[in-house]
Amino acid sequence: MTTSNLKLLCSNFCKLRLDNMVTRSNSYYKPRYRPPHWYMPKDRVMTDDMVTQENKQFIEEVMKDKLKMQTEMKSPLVEGDVQQTVQWSPFIKRTGLIARKIGNYPVWDKSGKKLQTTLLQVVDNHVIKYIPPEEYKPMRNSTQSGIRTQRHGCLLIGSQTIDPSTVTKDYCGIFDSVGMLPKQHLCRFLISPEAALPTGTPLFATHFRVGDYIDIRAKTIDRGFQGVIKRWGFKGMPASHGVTKTHRRPGNIGGGGEKGRVWPGTKMPGHMGNRWRILRGVKILRINTKYNVIWALGVAIPGETGAMCYLYDTVLPLKKLKTAPPFPTHPPMSDLPLEYYDESIHPFDDSTITLDDA
Amino acid sequence: MSLALRKTTDIVAATKWILRRGCLNLSTLPEKSEVLEQSGNEVKRRSGRKPVNPILKCRHVYPEFLPDPNPKWRNSLREKLERMDMLKRRNQIEIPEFYVGSILAVTISDPHAQSKTNRFVGICIERKGSGLRAEFTLRNVVDHQGVEIRYDLYDPTIHQIQVLRLEKRLDDKLFYLRDALPEYSTFPFDMDPEILPEGTPVPINPVQVKLKPRPWLERWERQELKGISNIEEHLKEKDRVRRELRKKPWEKYDLMLQYRKTIPIEEQNDIWSEVYNQLHQLQVSQKKISRKRTYSTPKTQLG
């Protein structure tokens, strides 16, 4: 008995490590912003380049050629040099998409109920780069724990081709290695290494299926400096009955005595909007394969019309994917149906809804 | 036989139309306006402006095909998809031409009704919204109780939209019928559809309603409404003074205000050239079907 205990103690002592030592110093350590190593400054100072008309035409021709090459480039998934042997499992994290919010309009379900939807257009998404988990070391902030349990790789996805002369040379360099023109938006998706995609793979709206739930991350509408009524929904004070000069003001902001100060987190006027927010568990009702448009249920998707948003598979436990989705992504196909409808949705080219006596 | 039938029904419809016009003591307003429009066109042609595209006239018949002019909500792809969906729905049922002031009968599937369908007849007092969000409101007085129902134009539960009387009124919105005497918004549910002879312009009904005494739902005196006859009886001196104070006579000269409220001609040309062919085909096919249909509609016994 005692020997066994001694052994246990010994083994536990052997496991003790000294790599997590806390040192004390007087200077406060502030985490420095360390941009990811693929990051390149994008914005260029626009100057008059004094290019002659001929040179301008030449540049345009080169751009056209490159664009043609890019459109003719075949997806690596179709060519078949990548064999996907790994099967999808619920623990694998797939890549997401970059989409643009293009508006809202209603659809009707089979029982005749009107549902408001938001249209998200997937604007030519391409895989730009994959960084395996061993090489991917992002900056950690204080809220994250010291040890990372799950190892995720990083997949860079670009969206919406732009004129290379409007961005810096360094930024173009990221895309040059793939043989592509630079993209307006570049986003990082953390994925499982099994779900990695070869560079240059185009992504489509069919990456998601109808009836799946997605998380949508976007910046909310920038409303600027707002008062307390708009920002926090305070009631304000009466318009009349002797009230002067305090119709839309917050009123009291705290007690006196021991608590005679403004407590942290007090709701006050300030900047409203322009923050990253995630709306989780949004159902996909309809997908158009020609224009790559996704109809998502609800109008609460952050951002105004034309804002970019990022789409992920949802993390909500009850709405997670249950059956295997297109993995690692849906390959480009020419014989897809034009539209996919969720089974609860009434397609507009179906005949009028009649209710039977049940 | 069928030819004869059609002819007789045509004659009946025409006589009905003439009779109604006679009964209502209709002035020559529509003709006048037509003449005015024509002379305006001639003047335009003379002054050497570009001739206006004839398909632009669609904007009166299909106003919901034009998007909301607010630039915050514009997106060409969304508008295109929306128009495609609207045409798909229009292929399923006939959505006829109607205006504010027309009398419509709408049959819609209703889960609470005994027969699972519900038919409502009323005067269209408002038509608004663009795209699939287009909607219209019908008003009627049933058992001395004013009833208003708002329908979505592209709702797939609508079985039929029937125009019982195609006409316009003097105003763009007829909300003042809520404060008017009930006989102005009472229409029998077994009304027969009145068919205008082909090619006639949509008549304008110049009827002026009588308002009930105050209180009213809105300040009608400030809205410059043409369809009210007795508004001055109910006003006090205070109201007349305030009406003068609140007038905005500069607004009709505000070109930017009008520009922001409308879609420019160039964009309208694109939109109408995209949908005109399909809409025209639909119109032709629906005309054929309506010709085949016999006009004798059995009167339904209600209550």
UniProtKB/TrEMBL annotation, chain A:
Question: Region (Disordered): which ranges?
Answer: 240-266
What domain of life does the UniProt record list for this protein's source? Eukaryota
Q: Which UniProt keywords apply?
A: Ribonucleoprotein, Ribosomal protein
Q: Which InterPro entries match?
A: Ribosomal_uL3, Ribosomal_uL3_bac/org-type, Transl_B-barrel_sf
A Pfam family recorded for this sequence: Ribosomal_L3
Q: Annotated Gene Ontology MF terms? A: structural constituent of ribosome
What is the official name of this protein in its record? Large ribosomal subunit protein uL3m
Q: Which organism is it from?
A: Galleria mellonella (Greater wax moth)
Q: What is the taxonomic lineage of the source species?
A: Eukaryota, Metazoa, Ecdysozoa, Arthropoda, Hexapoda
Gene encoding the protein: LOC113516661
TrEMBL record, chain B:
Q: Provide the protein's localization.
A: Mitochondrion
Q: Does the keyword Transmembrane helix apply?
A: no
Q: Name one GO biological process term.
A: translation
**Which Pfam families does this UniProt record tie to the protein?**
Ribosomal_L19
Superkingdom as given in the UniProt entry: Eukaryota
The protein here is known as: Large ribosomal subunit protein bL19m
Q: Which family does it belong to?
A: Belongs to the bacterial ribosomal protein bL19 family.
Record's InterPro entries? Ribosomal_bL19, Ribosomal_bL19_sf, Translation_prot_SH3-like_sf
Q: What's one GO MF term for it?
A: structural constituent of ribosome
**The entry's keywords:** Mitochondrion, Ribonucleoprotein, Ribosomal protein, Transit peptide
One GO location term (cellular component): mitochondrial large ribosomal subunit
User: What Gene3D superfamilies does the annotation carry?
Assistant: 2.30.30.790
